[in-house]
Amino acid sequence: MKCLIALIGISLLGTGCYYDHADLAYPQSNSASGCNVSAVTYSASVTGILSANCYSCHAGSAAAGGGIKLDTYAGLKVYAANGQLMNSVNHTGGIAAMPLNAAQLSSCQIKTIQTWINNGTPNN
């Protein structure tokens, strides 16, 4: 009887060492979390984010945001290439945090922009 109890105890100890970080053990795919970055494009993905969050200060001939124009591909590509775009939306790197006086972009929006940059900033 003591052996049976000991065996049960040992088997229960073995199951007690379960990896308890489910998010790390079973990561969610990007699409399952609602953030699909598998087909990021400049025209369909990036400009929508920028239009909603940046163009009020960084577009047109009178760009109020320090003369930084993000409403054209050529203008945006400069800031994507030199790292200022990601530093400003990530609130890192000594660059002014953007959007100014507003909440940080969502993690999905930031991931979308970063994916576009990682893909070589295609004009698509």
Give the helix/strand layout.
Layout: H1 2-15, H2 22-25, H3 42-53, H4 73-81, H5 84-90, H6 107-118
Can you give me a brief rundown of this structure?
With about 120 residues, the protein is an all-alpha fold. The protein contains six helices and no strands.
Could you estimate the helical fraction of the residues in percent? 40-55%
Query: Can you name the CATH architecture of the domain at 39-124?
Result: Orthogonal Bundle
Question: Count of helical segments?
Answer: 6
Distance between the termini: 72 Å
Named CATH topology of the domain at 39-124 = Cytochrome Bc1 Complex, Chain D, domain 2
Secondary structure: number of strands: 0
Mean pLDDT: 80
Q: Oligomeric state of the chains?
A: single chain
**Molecular shape:** globular
CATH top-level class of the domain at 39-124: Mainly Alpha
Query: Would you list the SSEs in sequence order as H and E?
Result: HHHHHH
Describe this structure in words.
The protein is mostly helical and 124 residues long. The chain has a domain of 86 residues: Cytochrome Bc1 Complex, Chain D, domain 2, CATH 1.10.760. The radius of gyration is 23 Å and the shape is globular.
Provide tags for this entry:
mainly alpha, 124 residues, Cytochrome Bc1 Complex, Chain D, domain 2, 6 helices, globular, single chain
